Amino acid sequence: MTTLVVLQPGYLPWIGFFDLLRQADYFVYYDDVQFDKHGWRNRNRVKGPNGANWLTVPVLHSGLGLQAIKDIRIDNSQPWRRKHITTLRQCYAKAASREPYFTELAALIDQPWEKLIDLDIAAASLIANWLGLTPPAYRSSDMLIEGDRNRRLINLCHRFSATTYLSANAAQTYIDIDLFARNGIAVRWQNYAHPTYAQQHGEFLPYMSALDLVFNQGALSREIMETGTKHDA
User: For FRET with 38, which of 54, 105, 116, 163 sits at 20 to 30 Å CA-CA?
Assistant: First the structure.
């Protein structure tokens, strides 16, 4: 069985993103689809003393019309790098396992990024490396894959000779399981159950960036992440 996962890139993704990555034989960043202004492509949350704190990368979109994720440029006229590093430093000042992760991430954020896609993939790759995840990763924009939504995903499966397509549960609204089956591909749903762990600042708050898990739990992070895996055939 060869498993393919296709996901839109996100900024400092939550742990469910990395659990899908863990189960993939091949992983594709779906970067040539339309950028969603209010989604997770350029933002995420971390937990501070007063609850969730948004980390948002400002992007250029005014007057540019509809853009693909791969084409989105960062608005570097705003001091977002300094703000993100400062927020992370304050939120996780007393986190048990903050180092060396914080220092590595701060150095990455502080680089002169121009395109959002490059920042997203670099940050996700850093977190994946912390979790010991190294499946081959590709960008859909680098491959000439055509068709509507379902057909493109099927063609991507064929591109990698994948017999299984593993997807986040939310995709059930548009995935045509019968069409995949007729093309020799089984669809499996992640159905991820968010695990709890020792977390700073009061009552546990789920669905933060995976940074929250790593800064609090360090070397135990992958083991904790895996406890949430509950996919269906």
Answer: 105
pTM for this structure? Answer: 0.94
Beta-bridge partners for 179: none
Q: Dig out the tokens for 67 from the structure.
A: 């853009």
Residue-wise pLDDT tens digits, 174-185: 899 999 999 999
Q: How far apart are CA 172 and CA 215, in angstroms?
A: 32
Distance (Å) of CA 183 to CA 143, 224, 231: 20, 35, 21
pLDDT at 191: 87
Q: In Å, what is the CA distance from 190 to each residue of 3, 90, 124, 228, 233?
A: 12, 33, 19, 10, 9
Q: Which tens digit of pLDDT belongs to each residue from 81-108? A: 999 999 999 999 999 999 999 999 999 9
Backbone angles phi, psi at 231, to 5 degrees: -90, 155
Rounded to an integer, what distance in angstroms lies between the CA atom of residue 124 and that of residue 47? 18
Find the helix or strand (DSSP H, E) in which 214 lies.
helix 210-217
Distance separating alpha carbons of residues 65 and 20, to the nearest angstrom: 32
